[in-house]
Design brief:
This protein has 389 residues and is an alpha+beta fold. The strands form 4 sheets. Strands 1, 2, 3, 15, 16, 19 and 20 form a 7-stranded mixed β-sheet that branches. A hairpin with a 2-residue loop joins strand 1 and strand 2. Helix 6 runs parallel beside helix 7 and helix 7 packs parallel to helix 8.
């Protein structure tokens, strides 16, 4: 069975349908490896809470909380137990379609919900929310990094309904914004021919159909007269890993794209490209919002010297999770391995450094084709490719 690699909220996820998972009886979430004293203490704790807590305990939520607590005890921001609804939201993300305000979020080291990126042209993007902003409140309720799933759920809702966000911005302090929810259904690839026989392709997220989209856009903007390609991965939080590796396969000659090792240092997976490749000079644009699968693609192109990386340091998400769905529709995401670029480099918590660092003008209103006159990174990419011709 083919493995699907996916990345979500700064995570690179490995979907392994053949994985087995054992759950004890529903009456308890504690395994047989507990000592009798530990088991008694656990049962006493449950009984004590149910008997003395100020309000009535919801048995269903109580059980769910226990499952979430087990995974949370790992203190790993990328491992989590998902309810059935949360698992469906995960699948919606991989299909690049959902209702909300258009942000990719992750728990920060300060336990605040941190914006990885605002999806281009989404309500969040139009409101000026950017990488590094902190989500403090949603509809007046406080949320921390450990409550990320609940916060995301609160931000979703019916189309054209409003959601109030309190946001901590690094240079502006706390701001309160009211956003209108929209259907975030992404065409994940955009492209345009540029002057000087250059081609621009931007990838906003890696979904199930991104590799096919990319191929179609290459046919649209690349011809026999094309002198160079700009690949824009800025603000791309990752997504379906197959999309990233299939695109790398189109751009690289024969060689390693990415490898993954478990806690024993054993290689558990690797992806390689074939000999066919798009033979064009390339520049890859990236920034702090480029994460996960974006870093896999950028790292492979950099290590094989197939592209010049321009912009800023990437986010640094280099661990792998397995995602397993249980019979009831709920499931777990668990960190099991670390990935490495073709040169054996781990980028987790470090990111990938650009070959040419270019800072954006702090007063720039945006990036990309619509903001070319303000986008110094894109301008530099064009200049580099012109110099090669």
């Amino acid at each position: 069975m083919k493995k699907r690699w996916i990345g979500i909220i700064l995570a690179v996820l490995l979907l392994t349908n053949g994985m087995t998972f054992y759950l004890a009886k529903r009456e308890t979430v504690f395994g047989n490896d507990l000592s009798p004293q530990e088991a008694i203490k656990m049962q006493y704790l449950k009984t004590f809470i149910k008997k003395n807590y100020l309000r009535k305990v919801d048995e269903k939520k109580f059980y769910t909380g226990q499952l979430k607590g087990i995974v949370a005890s790992l203190e790993d921001p990328y491992s989590e137990y998902y309810t059935k609804k949360e698992m469906q939201d995960l699948m919606d993300f991989t299909q690049a379609s959902f209702y909300g305000v258009g942000m990719v979020l992750a728990p920060g080291d300060d336990d605040l919900i941190t914006v990885v990126s605002a999806i281009k042209d989404s309500p969040a993007d139009k409101a000026g929310i950017t990488t590094g902003d902190k989500i403090i409140k949603v509809n007046g309720k406080d949320y921390r990094g450990e409550n990320l799933s609940q916060a995301v759920e609160a931000m979703k809702g019916k189309e054209d309904t409003k959601v109030d966000l309190q946001i901590l911005k690094k240079d502006e302090g706390i701001k309160t914004l009211t956003l209108v929810r929209k259907k975030i259904s992404l065409d994940t690839v955009i492209s345009q021919k540029l002057e000087g026989n250059l081609a621009y392709i931007g990838i906003q997220q890696f979904s199930d159909h991104t590799a096919e989209e990319f191929s179609n856009h290459v046919k649209k903007v690349v011809d026999e007269n094309t002198k160079g390609l700009i690949l824009d991965l800025r603000g791309n939080p990752g997504g379906v890993m197959d999309g990233a590796t299939e695109i790398a396969d189109q751009l690289l000659g024969k060689g390693l794209i990415v490898s993954a090792k478990d806690r024993e240092g054993k290689i558990v997976d690797k992806v390689e490209s074939d000999e066919k490749a798009l033979d064009l000079p390339m520049v890859v644009l990236m920034n702090k919002g480029s994460a996960s699968a974006s870093e896999i693609l950028a790292g492979a192109l950099k290590d094989h010297k197939r592209a010049t990386l321009v912009g800023d340091q990437s986010y640094g998400k280099g661990v792998i999770q397995i995602v397993k769905t249980f019979p009831g529709g709920d499931g777990i995401k668990l960190t099991v391995a670390e990935y490495f670029t073709p040169n054996g480099v781990s980028i987790d918590k470090k990111g990938i450094a650009p070959d040419v660092k270019v800072d954006l003008d702090p007063n720039a209103k945006g990036i990309g084709l619509n903001f070319y006159k303000e986008d110094k990174q894109l301008q530099k990419a064009v200049d580099l490719l012109k110099d090669k011709n």
